[in-house]
Amino acid sequence: MTPSDQTPERTRSAAAGAARNEHERALLDRVARGDRAAFKELYLAYHRRLARFLTRLTARYDVAEEIINDTFWVVWRRAGDFRGASQVSTWIMGIAYRRGLKTLQRLRPAPSLDDREPEMLSYEPWHQAELSEWLGAALARLPLEQRMVLELAYHGGHSCEEIGLIMQCPVNTVKTRMFHARRKLRRLLVVLGGSEERSV
Amino acid sequence: MTHELAAQRIPWLVNGTLSAAETLELEEHLADCASCRADLEEQRSVRESMRAESPVVFAGEASFQKLAARLDGGAPRRIGARISAPRRAPLRANVAVRWLAAAAVLEAVVLGYGAFVWHGAATTALPAPYVTLSSPVPSYAGTQRIRVVFAPDLTLGQLQMVLRGVQAHIIDGPTEANVYTLGFAPAAAKAGQLEARLEALRADARVRFAEPVAGGSDASP
Fold it and tell me: Which of A115, B150, B174, B211 is the most buried (most CB within 10 A)?
């Protein structure tokens, strides 16, 4: 990989992201005026992404669905307050994250998140086809904040700064959580791979 | 660039959010650092796996209808009020609404609009009870009940044919194992018909499993 072959890709990606944000901003403006069709378009555009994100957060599909609707209830009521200080996606994901955390706090006592060591798994095989499955199991054993940083970065494609806005924490905290997440995930994957020597 | 800083930037190179200048610095380090190159490949693999398609099918249409009903419903409920620890709703509460809800869920699933489907098992919460019924609510107390599992590729029309064939209503389900409980309104629940209904259901290729509920009135699958 060289800068020359990555820059055009990044440029195209940035342009697509800017166009998407502009479109979503226009939708949000219409939502602020009570436009139900725009609201539905925005909802459907985010449903799958939020469902995935909130299922990773709560591990309950029914709860994820409820939080999605709570999130868009807030979007419906507060669309007029959005001033464009962040991308629309960052704003919506931030609402969803906070609603999800509040729901989790109500459902169960919050564990000590960043200090907890992941529980080790004991799967034997190391097959590429099973990667997603056991990776999901390993992720579920990470502290919540670390898991969500990985999810937002790798599945959501958010930048370090965006994740800071979504999680309402400093950028350095995001970096620290990412560092610990990778370290703990690596330990889990070593166990999953059945080899203490394996560096993955 | 130090090795520590390079290692810290790797995830953000992987997800394409580093600036051009940061990328250039990191790539210069990567050219000389086998450890970071291995780390980069590992993180790419993790990202690729995380982005792999989930077996959970999410479709927003049915969920949006719930929210739309909530928006139309006037006073907002307290956010998150419907969410609670896992529980089983009281079975006898408004069975007609539950029938409609179960049918709506099944319809959503067969139409591809199921809110959440995990390996083919509908696990969504029932739709909000905003359906208005003008017809009287039939009572299923003490009547015959049968638990069934339908063929996974059943269409709504086929489901309705099965139900009409044995004059049954869905009064509970699906469970996580996709088990539905069928009930029979008192007028249709004549003595001696249970065996005939069971026989009909078991002979139907659209039904994978049919067993009577012991005691008749216990419909909790």
Answer: B150
